[in-house]
């Protein structure tokens, strides 16, 4: 997998701390797990220098103590770079990636609604996808959240 | 409601022009759209959360129902991620059958779109023609899978139904007819002045904006973005199949129309290759109910664009997390941009031109019998007769009227 190895090598050369954080599970898939403090520079480099110009989506995960976020970035070569980072669940603050991808707005709103992420820099606007009268502090994709048996008017 | 001479008009969430609930708040100055505010989420059904509480096989059927039109797209995208985690090598024949169904689905979806687009610009003849022709591919899909939509062809590790020589002949016959019809539609799209004039310069999305807003599928390809998951990140049998990725530089609704009609021709090419090169062999590989811990992301070029599924497993028979990003979510961002500074009258066709997804489950094959206890499966013809009898019993008899109408048409 020469292409994938090149991407890995380039990332390691640029950011030494990624040495043991990169996996290539199969052709055209590269997974990077990194600390949120380093996220911004790696993301910037991947998009601007390595031409990962398409943000497929952002996946949010509840991993117990932390909320994890995977930014799925695609290159025109077909390689998908999955940048996974996490922030503490009790204060899940992230910066928006809208300056890079204006289309990320809806993906970030989804993280806010369903997982309770706090995204700095997200412009004011409608929530998505939950209803306007959805109770505060209820984040359905968190693992400890359970629906209350579907009674009318309850969640 | 208005700020100086600017008016705000709400469109939706329930509106006859939109087949799905979405709410558009349009700021107008005269007939010009100054800005659009889109509120989505009315269709949110909590499917991702529901997936975490069900087994992989149950999820497969649930996910197929994310969308009525690209049901195969979602089920294939999901099943590919699960198979990758489980390390299953899916038999080649199954991959070819998946590809075949995928392209048949694209044909039905693009023909459906062409009809809707015709309708939105007041060209209902095109709607009638394309939807009549679409029945050919719907019949093929029903023949192969048993269903017009929600085909249920996939299973984890392969497909559930094989195809035989007779079915192959039926498909080829249908595809030949469709190809002839599509050539005619391409001619119409290229030569018919009313289409060209109505669609050109409407819903403009330039290359840079398509990239910036992360548009996908025909919407992006009509702005010159040369991306297609089938070629760039091949799945199923696409790695072995020759086809062209259609792009266009018109950057408007007209370009989106050309891309879709030309993609139909590519779809026929792929279908014929699948049938010709389909290897013999088994169609499924046995997969244990429990999927080992891991995660995978799968991409799929649905008729509307790139579909993305992420699956994380925890070693049990239920997934830890399933994330779905359907193509319309990626494209709806671009709509705001396309509408700005345009005319109100362009709104229906601009929205329709990204081909937003709506359900088309229009056929009932199973009803409870009148005693209410046992389920009875009725074939299409019996269901029709049942309907006629039911209406007769309620004092409505259309048989005579229909017969005289038919005679008049034949005479």
Explain what the structure shows.
The complex is a heterodimer of chains A (155) and B (411). Helices cover 24% and strands 28% of the residues of chain A. By secondary structure, chain A is an alpha/beta fold. The mean pLDDT of chain A is 92. Chain B contains 15 helices and eleven strands. In chain B, helix 4 packs antiparallel against helix 11 and helix 4 packs antiparallel against helix 13 (347-353). Helix content of chain B is 49%, strand content 14%. In chain B, strands 1-2-3-4 form a four-stranded antiparallel sheet. Chain B has a three-stranded antiparallel sheet with strand order 7-8-9. In chain B, strands 5-6 form a two-stranded antiparallel ribbon. Mean pLDDT of chain B is 89; it is low at 358-368. Chain B is α+β, with helices and mostly antiparallel strands. The chains are: A alpha/beta (155), B alpha+beta (411). Chain A binds chain B through residues 25-26, 28-29, 53-57, 59-62, 70, 72, 74, 76-78, 80, 82, 101-107, 114, 125-131, 140-141, 147, and chain B through 37-41, 44, 46, 48-49, 84, 211-215, 226-227, 232-234, 296-297, 299, 306, 308, 310, 312, 320-321, 323, 325, 329-330, 332-334.
How far do the termini of chain B sit from each other? 58 Å
Count of individual helical segments of chain B: 15
Terminal residue distance of chain A: 48 Å
Spans of chain B of at least 5 consecutive residues whose pLDDT stays below 50 are 358-368
* Strand order across the largest sheet of chain B: 1-2-3-4
For the residues shown, what is the average pLDDT of chain B?
89
Rg of chain A, alpha carbons: 17 Å
Major interchain interface with per-chain residue totals = A-B, 39 and 36 residues
Biggest pleated-sheet summary of chain B: 4 strands, antiparallel
Shape of chain B: globular
Structural class of chain A: alpha/beta
* Tally of contiguous helical segments of chain A: 3
Portion of residues within helices of chain B: 40-55%
Oligomer: heterodimer
* Biggest sheet: strand arrangement of chain A: 1-2-5-4-3
Please write the string of helix (H) and strand (E) elements of chain A: HEEHEEEEHE
Q: How many DSSP-defined strands of chain A?
A: 7
What gross morphology of chain A would you assign? elongated
In terms of DSSP E residues, the strand content of chain B is 5-15%
């Amino acid at each position: 997998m020469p292409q994938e190895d090149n991407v890995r090598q380039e990332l390691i050369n640029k950011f030494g701390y990624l040495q043991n954080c990169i996996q290539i599970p199969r052709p055209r898939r590269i997974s990077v797990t990194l600390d949120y403090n380093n996220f911004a520079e790696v993301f910037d480099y991947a998009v601007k220098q390595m031409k990962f110009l398409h943000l497929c989506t952002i996946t949010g995960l509840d991993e117990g103590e932390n909320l994890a976020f995977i930014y799925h970035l695609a290159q025109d070569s077909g390689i998908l770079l999955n940048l996974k980072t996490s922030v503490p669940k009790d204060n899940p603050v992230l910066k928006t990636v809208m300056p890079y991808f204006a289309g990320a707005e809806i993906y970030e709103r989804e993280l806010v609604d369903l997982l309770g992420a706090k995204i700095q820099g997200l412009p004011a606007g409608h929530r998505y996808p939950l209803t306007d009268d959805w109770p505060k502090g209820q984040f359905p994709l968190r693992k400890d959240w359970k629906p209350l048996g579907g009674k009318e008017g309850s969640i | 409601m208005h700020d100086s001479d600017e008016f705000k008009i709400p469109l939706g969430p329930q509106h006859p022009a939109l087949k799905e609930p979405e709410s558009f708040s349009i700021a107008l100055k005269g007939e010009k759209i100054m800005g659009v505010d889109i509120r989505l989420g009315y269709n949110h059904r909590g499917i991702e959360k529901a997936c975490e509480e069900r087994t992989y096989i149950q999820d497969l059927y649930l996910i197929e129902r994310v969308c009525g039109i690209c049901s195969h797209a979602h089920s294939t995208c999901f099943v590919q991620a699960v198979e990758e985690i489980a390390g299953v090598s899916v038999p080649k024949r199954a991959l070819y059958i998946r590809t075949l169904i995928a392209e048949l689905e694209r044909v039905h979806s693009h023909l459906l779109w062409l009809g809707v687009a015709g309708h939105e610009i007041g060209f209902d003849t095109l709607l009638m023609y394309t939807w009549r022709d679409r029945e050919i591919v719907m019949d093929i899909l029903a023949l192969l899978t048993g269903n017009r939509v929600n085909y249920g062809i996939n299973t984890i590790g392969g497909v559930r139904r094989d195809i035989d020589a007779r079915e192959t002949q039926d498909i080829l016959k249908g595809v030949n007819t469709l190809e002839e019809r599509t050539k005619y539609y391409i001619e119409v799209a290229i030569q018919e002045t009313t289409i060209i004039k109505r669609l050109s310069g409407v819903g403009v999305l330039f290359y840079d904006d398509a990239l910036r807003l992360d548009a996908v599928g025909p919407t992006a390809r009509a702005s010159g973005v040369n991306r297609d998951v089938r070629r760039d990140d091949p799945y199923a049998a696409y790695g072995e199949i020759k086809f062209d990725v259609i792009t266009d530089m018109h950057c408007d609704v007209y370009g989106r129309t050309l891309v879709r009609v030309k993609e139909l021709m590519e779809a026929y090419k792929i279908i014929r290759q699948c049938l010709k090169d389909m290897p013999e062999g088994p169609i499924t590989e046995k997969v244990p109910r429990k999927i080992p811990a891991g995660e995978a992301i799968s991409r799929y070029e649905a008729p509307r664009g790139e579909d993305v599924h992420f699956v994380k497993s925890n070693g049990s028979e239920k997934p830890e997390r399933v994330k779905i990003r359907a193509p319309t979510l990626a494209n709806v961002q671009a709509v705001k941009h396309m509408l700005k500074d345009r005319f109100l009258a362009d709104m229906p066709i601009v929205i329709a031109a990204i081909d937003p997804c709506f359900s088309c489950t229009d056929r009932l094959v199973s009803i409870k019998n009148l005693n209410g206890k046992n389920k009875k499966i009725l074939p299409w013809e019996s269901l029709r007769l049942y309907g006629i009898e039911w209406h007769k019993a309620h004092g409505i008899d259309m048989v005579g009227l229909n017969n005289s109408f038919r005679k008049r048409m034949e005479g």
